[in-house]
Amino acid sequence: PGSFSAAFQEYLRHLGLQDFPCRLGSWNKSCHNARRSPQAKPAELEEAVAPGEESPEVLLELLRDQNSPWALPPDCSPQDRLLREVAMLAPELLRGFRLFQVFKALRMADKGVEELDEGLLQFQQLEELILSANHISRVTSAHLPRTLKVLELCCNTVGDLQDLCVQPPPGLQHLGLGHNRLCGPSQEKHLTVDFWPNLVSLDLSFNRLTDLLGLVSQLSTLPNLRILLLQGNPLTLIPTYRGFLVDSLPKLSILDDIRIWPEERLQFHGLGKQPELTRSEARVVVSIGEMKGLPDPEAFQELEVGSEGPVITYSYCVTYEF
Length: 322
Known about the structure:
Blueprint: H1 4-15, H2 29-36, H3 42-46, H4 56-64, H5 78-89, H6 98-101, E1 105-107, E2 128-130, E3 150-152, E4 174-176, E5 201-203, H7 212-219, E6 227-229, H8 241-248, E7 254-255, E8 258-259, H9 262-267
Parallel strand pairs: 1-2, 2-3, 3-4, 4-5, 5-6, 6-7
Antiparallel strand pairs: 7-8
Helix pairs in contact: 4-5
């Protein structure tokens, strides 16, 4: 429980690939045997449906019709639909090791995955792996297919990139680490061309990165970086944050989901050479509109001069938590 392999097997079981109307069974055996014959002609395939069996067209309709008891939920992914139809039309493709060769993209979001085990290496054709909204805190690069081009780990608990960077997939183009627990300045050293020579898109949004200068010095080594997300990190509170990044990374096209136009580059030209303007501090102005439950000072009558009446003093402590 908690491993990627266990979650994947549970995912396959949930799809019902071994149940009617998928896979090979008494409902489609004759037609399937006819398709396996290399001499089979289209006309012969149409006549191959024996009495009591169903044609491929009828079985497909059972999978696709939303009123069918065997239909997938409306919110299921294209990946789910494809696997169901492959299991029905060509079940031999999903037998044994062949199953893993079908996947070029795999989405396992919110499946309770805690560990990426060696089972991932069976997906030798995998190019896109989506593991968002799980409980992954550690990613071992040795367990990732070398063919990966997209790795999305948004909304996990990753706090250290060291294991991921031991031998990462060399052709990776997108790395998604938004909404994790990366803390600066110890993680910036893992974001260089030595580990990600082909990276085009990088999502580091909503982490705990604080060292803007250190991060930019490492990101500037990535020759193909065009899309960068940093919003939600403490370093974005620096007043010159966007301008400094725009001028320091001239090849960047999109920053925090906002396109960088030539006019903006011209506006911030030269700011990247003024690191003294990127001080790690920010000013916060708090305006209190209304306070309830406190005595109103104007409600007290001023004591007359020489009066011996008691003087009452009120003190209040206001605490701001960020």
